[in-house]
Amino acid sequence: MNFQSNRIGQIPPYLFAEINKKKEKMMKAGVNIIDLGIGDPDLPTPKHIIDKLVEETKDPKNLKYPSFVGCTEFKQAVANFYWRQYQVKLDPDTEVLALIGSKEGIAHIVPTLIDPGDYVLVPDPSYPVYRMATLLANGQYYNMPMLKETDFKPDLHAIPAKILSEAKLMFLNYPGNPTSATVDVEFFNEAVEFSRKHNIPIAHDSAYNMVTFDGYKAPSILEVEGAKDLAVEFGSLSKTYNMTGFRIGYVVGNKNIIKALSIYKSNTDTGQLTPIQKAAAFALNSDQSCIAKHNKIYKERKTVMLEGLKTIGVEVSPPKGSFFIWAPVPTGYTSAGFVSSVMEQTGVILTPGNAFGPSGEGYFRISLSVPNERLYEAVNRIKEKLKIVIA
Ligand SMILES: *Cc1c(COP(=O)(O)O)cnc(C)c1O
User: Fold this and answer.
1) Is the CB of residue 35 below 6 angstroms from any atom belonging to ligand 1?
2) What is the structure's pLDDT at 310?
3) Is the CB of residue 272 below 6 angstroms from any atom belonging to ligand 1?
4) Which domains are seen in the chain, by residue range?
5) Atom 12 of ligand 1, nearest CA residue
6) Ligand 1 atom index nearest CA of 177
7) Is 10 exposed, middle or buried (0-12, 13-18, 19+ CB in 10 A)?
8) Which positions fall inside the Aminotransferase class I/classII large domain (predicted)?
9) Tens digit of pLDDT for each residue in 242-279?
10) How far, in Å, is the centroid of ligand 1 from the Cα of 74?
11) What pLDDT is stored for residue 388 in this prediction?
């Protein structure tokens, strides 16, 4: 017997769960795996944040049901961050909502804003949650191709009029996962203008807002004048402070959308543990030097990997954001073919580009989540075992 809804039946297996199954099998067989697949930072959470978590956990009143919308300290800390980083003013009571990791809010904003049959505009390739949440809400997604020729930005004017008239939400994500593409505020200006014209709210996912290099500063969509009329921005502590397991993020911007999402959430979850929120507030409010320290490490790894890729004939210009490298597969391979050859022959795990959408075909994603020595080792194994002929 198979008890599941049609909605669940149409969801393809979670990509990383599949890869993990294969990985566990190979580990059991004694293969020395180098996992450049999943986007979970290997660097530790800074000590001052953990100390704060421990301290707050000792107060019994912090272990009661938390506030539905997030504790005041956390929401205020997010507002402080927006002012400090972007000179954007936020009202912590109406324009900030705490999330149980940004993934939670990204998934729940879809049924908050769309009805069955409505369209959601999603970048292609992109974080799979945008698409899967749409299917779970009985919506339809429209893939906006993100191609190298357009610097991995969607061509908004290529979206058919019929789709636009039925679209109730557009996702954007910069610095981008998996493309590592970055934009300047001018792009957000265009997106906001477009969305105003077509009456489509924007949800910008800024999970990698602070993972940037070479002096590049990632803009917030809320820097655009009037953006709060129609946009929200998701943010996360996960990648900025290596807090993926804490499950704490936020959404900021348009009041009505935030109110609607809080109605959805108050009937679904009861918020994140208060000590986690307080530790996150502390992370946002205290010394930020850990961010530069982490980015310096990613930058070194990126340089190592880009040099290594050159030696197998794969040329990528250095990305200015995220800890990913989005690289074209060597000549003669498909994404899936290359990734599974590499995995089987070398024990190096990569992510096939098409897993993020059809326009990801021809690419693979490298996550810079292991130390330099392992990156050298990964490239050497690929070079030796695959005998890739440089065109
Ligand atoms: C990691 C990631 C998230 C989820 O972050 P959490 O706050 O840990 O849920 C959201 N969007 C993108 C693009 C990500 O890569």
Assistant:
1) no
2) 93
3) no
4) 6-45+289-390 (3.90.1150.10), 49-285 (3.40.640.10)
5) 207
6) 13
7) exposed
8) 32-382
9) 999 999 999 999 999 999 999 999 999 999 999 999 99
10) 18
11) 64
